Amino acid sequence: MANNQESVVNQQNNYFDEIDEILGNKYVNIGPGQKKDLKFMLEKGITKVVKPYNGEPAEKIRFIVAETNEGNGTQKFFDVGKRSARLIVTKLKEGHMLLRIERVGSGKETLYIPTEIATNP
User: Fold this and answer.
1) pLDDT tens column, 52-96
2) Cβ neighbours of residue 110 under 8 Å, at least 6 residues apart?
3) Using one digit for the tens of pLDDT, what is the confidence trace for 2-20?
4) Are 80 and 99 in contact (CB under 8 A)?
5) Does residue 70 sit within a domain?
6) Is residue 55 part of a domain?
7) Domain count, the chain
8) Under a CB-based contact definition with an 8 Å cutoff, are residues 36 and 100 in contact?
9) Quick check: is 5 in a domain?
């Protein structure tokens, strides 16, 4: 019977791994204190989306980006609040499409801070 239970647990773990892989491939995920290098694809547009947060609708700004350290150039969604979006848009207006994004804080206090990455001429 233990083998049967282990089999069910392994199936569940595989199922959750598949879900994580599907979700992980669609959205950029930056943990607290982490940094990621992102290439912003303005030609794909910037949109406003409404997502649930603590049971309430919350407006987010969606950018289409590619994680430069992955190397495969897969397009992903990067959804941020308005405060973070203003910081990012300022850098984009300056012509910086390659940004290092650092996550500071958590919950409603999360802020994504962009820093331009120098590119070789």
Assistant:
1) 888 889 999 999 999 987 667 789 999 999 999 999 999 999 999
2) 32, 81, 84, 103, 104
3) 444 444 444 554 556 556 5
4) no
5) yes
6) yes
7) 1
8) yes
9) no
- Per residue in 24-48, pLDDT (tens digit) is 578 998 999 999 999 999 999 899 9
Residue 79 belongs to domain spanning: 30-116
- Confirm if 113 and 100 have CB atoms less than 8 A apart: no
Segment (H or E) for 74:
none
Can you read off the two tokens belonging to residue 106?
A: 């958590």
The whole-angstrom separation of Cα 27 and Cα 29 is 6
- Residue 24 falls inside a structural domain: no
- As given in the structure block, the two tokens for residue 102 are 């650092």
Q: Is the Cβ–Cβ distance between 110 and 30 less than 8 Å?
A: no
**C-alpha of 15 from chain center:** 22
**Burial group, residue 25, by CB count within 10 angstroms (0-12, 13-18, 19+):** exposed
Q: Using a cut of 0.85, tell me whether the model's pTM lies above it.
A: no
